[in-house]
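Supplementary Note 2. Why include the ligand at all?

Several targets in our set were suspected to adopt different conformations when bound, so apo predictions alone were not considered sufficient. For every target with a known small-molecule partner we therefore ran a joint prediction. The input for PXL is given below.
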Amino acid sequence: MKRIVTVQDISAVGKCSLTVALPIISACGVECAVMPTAVLSTHTQFSGFTFHDLTDEIAPITEHWKKEGLTFDAIYTGYLGSFRQIELVEKLHETFGSTLIVDPAMADNGKLYYGFTEEFAARMAQLCGKADLILPNLTEACFMLGRPYTETYTQAEIREMLRELCALGAKRAALTGVSYEKGKVGFEMYDSVTDTFSSYFGEHLPVAYHGTGDIFASSCVGAMARGKSIEDALKVAVDYTYECVRLTLADEDRRDYGVNFEEAIPYLIERLK
Ligand code: PXL
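The joint prediction is reproduced in C-alpha cell form.
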C-alpha cells in the first residue's frame, strides 16, 4: 500500500483541508499520514474562528519520522498559513525527497483568503517551483504570476499561463475550475517534461461551494497513489468533485459551508476500479 503525507490545517468544522484530505485519500486505499499545521474551530470564511498554530511541531515530527526510517510516496500540501510553514515544507521535502504535489490553497474568485498577502503568494510560487505537480485555481495562478484576474479567457491564454507556471520550476501545472464553454468545467494541464497539454471537462453546476478545491486535490492525489497517470487522476478528480456537488444540491438538509463529499465516496471507489 502506498503511503503519502499531507500537510495542512485542521478546520474542525468546514469540510476542507485535513477533514476532507484524510477520509478521501483513505477511501482511495492509500495510507494518509498527516502533518497538521494548525487547529481552527472552523475555516476562515466563518467569522470569529479560533486558531492554534502548530508550526513548532513540524520540525520535531519531521525529525522523528526520519529517525524511524519512514518514507513517503508523495508529499501533498494544501492550505499553509505562514512563510515559516512553507520553509518547513521545503525542509520536509528535502528530508524525504518524495514526489511533491502542491495545492496553493490561498485564494478564489479573484480574491486572496483572509490573512494572505501578495508577498505570501510570491513565496507560495517558490514552493510551487519545487513541485512535480501543482493544482492552482485561476485566482491562485494569477496571484502567483502577478497577472490581473479575469473571469473570461481563451484556451491560448490558459496555455500561456500554464507555461508560465511551469517556468516557475514546477514539472506539471494543472489549472482547476477552467471553463471554455457554458455548462462545462474541468482542468487544463501542461506537462513541461513531455511538452504536452491535456484537458477534460464535466458538467458545470451553477453553484460555488467552499472546499471543492481541497476535494479535487485530495482525490487527484489518492488516484495518483493508486497508480493512475496524472491525466487520469485529474479526470477522476473532475468527476468526483462533480458528483459531490450534485449530491449536495440533491440534499434538502445540505450545509452551506461545504459539499457532501462523504456521500460520494462509494462513487469514488467505483471510479478508481
Ligand atoms: O479550503 C481551503 C482552506 C483551508 N483551510 C482553511 C481555510 C481555507 C479556506 O478558506 O480557511 C483554514
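The radius of gyration is 17 Å. The longest strand covers residues 31-42. Comparable summaries for the other entries are listed in the accompanying table.
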